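Would you mind giving me a polypeptide sequence along with per-residue structure tokens?
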Amino acid sequence: MQIINTLGRRKTSVARLYMKPGSGIITVNKRTFEDYFKSDVLQTIVNQPLVLVDEFGKYDLKVNLDGGGTTGQAEALRLAISRALCEINAEFRPALKKEGYLTRDPRMVERKKPGRRKARRKFQFSKR
């Protein structure tokens, strides 16, 4: 099997994933997985698709993450891993789709409008 290349996005984060058969080593931006995602919650989010289809520890992942914060990056990586697993075996698709791991979350930060304090918040009104 050759290297599988997939892309995942969430908010302003982009995850480019290169997956190949191996011993389960995950490298994120040339750092170890545990060093990059220090929180157990974020590590769990990233590993969810692999655990769901019982493929944890069977592939080496090389990841380039760019933009956004840590949560957005972890969820972008989860989408990229899910897409790669679907390319490996089409039978994984229904289980991953049922859990919502193949859905690109479209929610983004709304832009600030002119004449407002934030995107929707108005300036305080003073009658006098």
